UniProtKB/TrEMBL annotation:
<feature type="domain" description="Glycoside hydrolase family 2 catalytic">
    <location>
        <begin position="2"/>
        <end position="184"/>
    </location>
</feature>
<dbReference type="InterPro" id="IPR006101">
    <property type="entry name" value="Glyco_hydro_2"/>
</dbReference>
<dbReference type="InterPro" id="IPR050347">
    <property type="entry name" value="Bact_Beta-galactosidase"/>
</dbReference>
<dbReference type="GO" id="GO:0004565">
    <property type="term" value="F:beta-galactosidase activity"/>
</dbReference>
<dbReference type="InterPro" id="IPR006103">
    <property type="entry name" value="Glyco_hydro_2_cat"/>
</dbReference>
<dbReference type="GO" id="GO:0009341">
    <property type="term" value="C:beta-galactosidase complex"/>
</dbReference>
<dbReference type="Pfam" id="PF02836">
    <property type="entry name" value="Glyco_hydro_2_C"/>
</dbReference>
<keyword id="KW-0378">Hydrolase</keyword>
<dbReference type="InterPro" id="IPR023232">
    <property type="entry name" value="Glyco_hydro_2_AS"/>
</dbReference>
<keyword id="KW-0326">Glycosidase</keyword>
<dbReference type="InterPro" id="IPR017853">
    <property type="entry name" value="GH"/>
</dbReference>
<dbReference type="GO" id="GO:0005990">
    <property type="term" value="P:lactose catabolic process"/>
</dbReference>
<protein>
    <recommendedName>
        <fullName>beta-galactosidase</fullName>
        <ecNumber>3.2.1.23</ecNumber>
    </recommendedName>
</protein>
Amino acid sequence: APRWYELCNRYGLYVVDEANIETHGMVPMNRLSDDPAWLPAFSARVTRMVQSNRNHPCIIIWSLGNESGGGGNHEALYHWLKRNDPSRPVQYEGGGADTTATDIICPMYARVERDQPIPAVPKWGIKKWISLPGEQRPLILCEYAHAMGNSLGNFADYWQAFREYPRLQGGFIWDWADQAIRKTFAD
């Protein structure tokens, strides 16, 4: 992986460096994120990431993980990161706009206008998220536009919203691979 960071530094690719924290198989999802017994394990992953990679200029954002619910462990590590590297924003997908453990609202697969009433973790449409009273953080979709099969039909709707609202700052297309429905090969 060090070579990857060197190439990104050289060629000007921006990197969101994400701690290896993911617990989306747990029920409830925040079971480990809100358990103080797990803080040392969470902390080891975040501190190791920062200590290994902090001198790479390609890293523009630190991420506290992905799909792990929200909880006190993420809050503690957010504050640790802000003390140890105040030069970079910190993002965390798991808490949505309800958490203070992120400088960026970074939902996963939030729709443009329609809310998703998922019982455990409801997702609002991105226009609603940025319209919350007092909310000033930017919104960057941590995952969207997964083009497996024919599932990219609303791409133009996202880009219309990105152009219309300055705080909607784009997103990361999952997953940097061509998974088109039909492929042709020379051989």
